[in-house]
Design a protein that fits this description.
Strand content: 15-25%
Distance between the termini: 37 Å
Structural class: alpha/beta
Number of strands: 16
Largest sheet: 8 strands, mixed
Shape: elongated
């Protein structure tokens, strides 16, 4: 299921960016239009236009260097590109110029006079799919491999957080949206994915109901994801489903299909996101979120029914779905939402451990029963920006997930500090 080669084989056609003079663009487009392996996504006729479109990272770039005033801007742009580039140089280009272009890592072919795209189509396709496989493998390593070192203030590996419980109305969307926003505020490239039907995220975040998850499913590519995103400050948001019918179609989607949630996570991984937060629903679609995640946040209410629902959710993940996801025992975090109104923390945790029959994971954060939370969401503002009490309650969870020192332990007998981060013991 999670083999990158299988995902590539079921993926979309190779995307191509053509750059050159208008007559040359027309000829190149005609050469590729009939080949189902390729999709000419964009065309550019000047360097500035080309630079703006290179940020979408197309699989293949076919470039007529004649649109550049000189070699240095050409070399600069090619150095920033990470796909497979095929470059046509002017006839008067020197051997030294050809060698300089050919040495750039992205360049797979350098030509003078003309490029026969039909003749090299097989080579282009092979190069693009090989790079796509490499990106997917890198994304999977970021998803599932535990890191060995710290660095740069970034989380140690990619955090894919499913915020979930089997019960509705416990505050999953509130925790998911504010947690993702906090990650972005800490400088981490963060993506929040709604999965509700109909989804509450556009309503409480002041976003439009479209584009949404349906738009990405119709175009399950990196380009399609970019087009489906909305922003809340520096946080990228993909709104969920507009109705239960579209959610029902998603529930029946195989996990290895191009438009599946795990494929969405892999696409976001090689787009560079460090944190992906999935607002998982209390429906069968939650299984896709759990399959795509490497971290689980269980949002619980401080009540006996909250104990029962949360323990059953925990059992579902660690027992019934064992072997069907990549969430380690150390990757489960419990949040007590709207604490203070009913059961105390110790009482709640004791009841959860008794029902489970063994020690239940500790409660990482307590979110107070704060009226300003609802008031903030009714006015389409984030509670973390409005309520100090809410922000203080959320901080231990954000620290545990996004801070390399979030799980610091006491010093060991050798005087070295030991940290457990993402389930890995690190001594420094």
């Amino acid at each position: 299921m999670w083999n990158a080669n299988n995902l590539v084989q079921s993926a979309e056609a190779v995307t191509v960016l053509l750059a050159g003079s208008i007559p040359r663009l027309q000829a190149w487009y005609t050469a590729l239009a009939a080949d189902a392996r390729f999709r000419v996504a964009m065309q550019a006729s000047d360097p500035q236009d080309l630079r703006s479109k290179l940020v979408t990272n197309p699989d293949v770039l076919v470039l007529d260097a004649g649109i550049y005033p000189g070699p240095q801007p050409l070399l600069d742009d090619l150095t920033r590109y990470h796909g497979a580039a095929y470059v046509l140089l002017p006839m008067e280009a020197s051997r030294e110029a050809m060698d300089s272009v050919a040495q750039i890592p992205c360049v797979k072919g350098v030509y003078k006079g003309e490029i026969n795209l039909v003749a090299i189509a097989g080579e282009m396709y092979a190069a693009a799919t090989a790079q796509r496989t490499s990106r997917l493998n890198a994304g999977m390593e970021a998803l599932w491999n535990r890191p060995q070192s710290m660095g740069g203030g970034q989380p140690l590996g990619l955090r894919v957080v499913a915020v979930w419980n089997q019960a509705g109305g416990v505050g999953k969307t509130t925790i998911a949206s504010n947690l993702a926003y906090e990650a972005a505020r800490r400088g981490l490239p963060a993506l929040l994915v709604g999965m509700g039907a109909p989804d509450d995220l556009p309503l409480i975040l002041g976003l439009k109901p479209e584009p949404n998850l349906n738009h990405w499913r119709a175009n399950p590519t990196a380009e399609g994801l970019k087009l489906a995103l909305q922003k809340v400050d520096t946080l990228d948001v993909l709104a969920g489903f507009p109705d239960v019918l579209s959610e029902a179609r998603a529930i029946t989607t195989p996990l290895d299909a191009p438009e599946s949630l795990p494929k969405l996570v892999l696409t976001a991984a090689y787009m560079g996101y460090a944190v992906i937060v999935l607002d998982a629903p209390p429906t069968a679609l939650a299984s896709a979120a759990l399959a795509a995640a490497n971290t689980l946040v269980l949002v619980a209410r401080p009540s006996l029914e909250g104990v029962m629902r949360t323990v059953e959710a925990y059992r579902t993940v660690v027992e019934r779905l064992a072997g069907e996801h990549h969430i380690p025992a150390s990757g489960v975090y419990v949040v007590l939402n709207r604490a203070g109104g009913r059961m105390a923390l110790d009482e709640w945790h004791k009841a959860a451990s008794a029902l489970l029959g063994r020690p239940f994971p500790p409660v990482v954060a307590q979110i107070p029963d704060e009226p300003r939370v609802g008031e903030a969401q009714d006015s389409r503002r984030l509670p973390v920006n409005v309520s100090d009490a809410f922000a203080r309650g959320l901080k231990p969870l954000a620290d545990a997930l996004f801070s390399p020192q979030g799980a610091q332990a006491p010093q060991n007998s050798n005087g070295k500090k030991a940290f457990e981060i993402f389930g890995v013991r690190v001594k420094v």
